[in-house]
Every structure is written in structure tokens, then in C-alpha cells.
Amino acid sequence: MYKTLTIVSDTAICYKNGTYYGFNAVVNEIKSFENLFDKIIWIGYNYPERHSDKTLIEIESKNVEVVLLKKLGGKSIFALIAILLNYPLIFFKILKYIREADVVHTRAPSHPAFIATVISFFWKNKIWWHKFAGSWNAETLPFFYKFQRNLLVRAKHSKVTINGFWDNQPKHCLSFENPCLTTDNIIRGKEIIQFKKFDGRFTLCFIGRLDESKGVDVILASLKQIDLDKIEKIHFIGNSNSTKRSFFEKEALFLNDKAIFHGFLGKDKVHQILSESHFLLLPSKSEGFPKVIAEAACYGTIPIVSTVGSIPHYITDSNGFLWDKEVAISFEEILMSAFEEKVNFLENKSRNLSILAEKFTFTNYLTKLKSDILL
Questions:
Q1: Domain, as residue range, for 195
Q2: Can you tell me where the transmembrane regions are (predicted)?
Q3: Cα distance between the two ends of the chain
Q4: What pTM, to 2 d.p., does this model score?
């Protein structure tokens, strides 16, 4: 067991009624390995305005000490000035907690992770574990993300966990599946897959931020060209600003009561909807590997997704449908071909997804963490 782990991230955290709440995916990830450390210091961004956000859950562990940073970001000249002015303050705050750590875990791409990565080059007598959550394909990254990626490639004194499997991947950059599923999820998922049928109208699901980068506009434009008798329901899970959400709700009026905009939902409700759905739609413009694909796979919900990031490393013709937006075939055509496939063909794809889901369990994650990172 190690004494102290310091996590450096831009994860959303808020404080209300004497309790800290953090983004659910990260809270659950930390729960899976917290017993390996006497103390965990978790540095994240303060989001007081998100006190009612359903994606934030209670940080229950008593050995997690939360340190809040003022959030940075934006592309305006004023935002860039604020970032530059706050960098020295954040640098010394992060440095203070790195001093206490035996192991330092950064979650990139982010400003705090970038600062910690720079420090790592001058303080190599610790275990440095950097997680790069975005796409590892440099050609698709914005400038700052690409800069961080290239810095991590040079950080050979550390271990870097990334999405997918890439040509010429440096030895210290390790392919890691981000955990999101429990053993109980897998057991329940296998039971649901066994009885899931594709011989009637289809229930569709989208999970993510409601904007064009996630392909919500592509989904709605495609559905306008498809026989609606084939569709039972389409669930939109996720949110955006009120203006954008209202825009998409108006664009979906042609679906009548078939379209349901849920906003943010808790994990149990998301899994319930996935268990009832036949297809996950995610024609994103950019991704690393979205956990929602693994969650959908757990319940045999067939992904119809774009070929970005490491998605094609896991989704193939045997377990889903891939849309390459660089070729002439439209997402609408991919959708129609999926709807028109033979029942047994779709059911085979659904069953094959169970194998994929098992890669994304917390048990598998903890095993790899012990053997590959915490040596």
C-alpha cells in the first residue's frame, strides 16, 4: 500500500451542505482504487453552480481530501488573460500537494494536468501516472491538446494511459480501458442480452452533450429521412445550454412523442434505458473512447457510431455499425442499413458486445493498475 496519492485534474467538484460532490465517472473510478492508498488528495475545479447537477455524486470516502481550484477555460481574449494570470497561483498550489505524494495521477488534457506534467520532468523520484482522456490521434486534436499529448510522449519517466492501440506507440504509453461497469452490471447485462429481440420497432438512444460536436444535428437530420414506423422511441440523455436544448427539441418535433429529452440522469436510470434500447447513436466529430459505448455494450445495445478516436479499435462489423464521415456514405444510410438487417444478424452483434463490455469493468481496471502502473 502506498501512503499518498495526489490527483491533479479539472474534474467538476462542488461543495454543498457540508459534503463534496464530484463528476460520477471519476468518483467511481477513485472508489475502485482508494484502498491502495492511506490518503488521496484530489485537486479539481470548483463548480458551485452545479450543486443540483445529477452527474455529480457524493464523494463518500473519508480518506479523500478535496482541493478546489478556480476553473480556467475559454477562447476569448479575456479568458486567455485570466488563464495566464492564474497559472502561477495554480502552479504553486499543485506543487504543494505533489510534495506530499508518493504517486501523482494527472487527468489530461487540462490546465492543471499540464502544470503537473511539467513539474514531473524536474521531480522524477515519484510514480507519475498520466491519463490522457482525449483521442490519441494527434491530427484531430486542438493545439493545446496536441501540445500536451506531445509532452506526454516525451515523459518517459512516467506511465501514460491512453485510449486505443496505435502504431508506433511509445513503451511508456499504455492502452487502458476506462472503467465504468461492475461485475453486477455484467451479470445483469448478460441476462438482458439473452432475451433482447430485434424483430419489432426499434428503441434508440443518444447519450452525451446536446450539441453538434456529438452529432445531435446529424441524428435528427437522418431520422427525417427514415420511416418513423420503424422507431418506437428515441431517448436523448444529456444536456446543453437552454438555447441549444430548445433548438434541438424544436428540430425533433417531427418525431412527435417518440423523442424524449431527459437532460442529465443518474447512472441507474441511464442503464435502465440502455437495457431497453436496441441501438446507441453517436455520430461524434471527435472522441477518445466514450464510456457510453461500453455501457451500451453491457446491455447488448448496438452502437451506430463514427470512426473517430479509438472507437474502431473496439467497434467492428461483428458488434456494431461504423460511420466514416470522410466517405460518401451518409449517417442516414448507415441507419437504414442497420434497421433493414436480418434479425439473427442483429442479435449476433448484440451478443458479441458482451465480450467487449467485460474489458471495461472496475475489476479489470484494478488488475491492470496494480500490474502496469503501481510497480
A1: 183-358
A2: 77-95
A3: 11
A4: 0.93
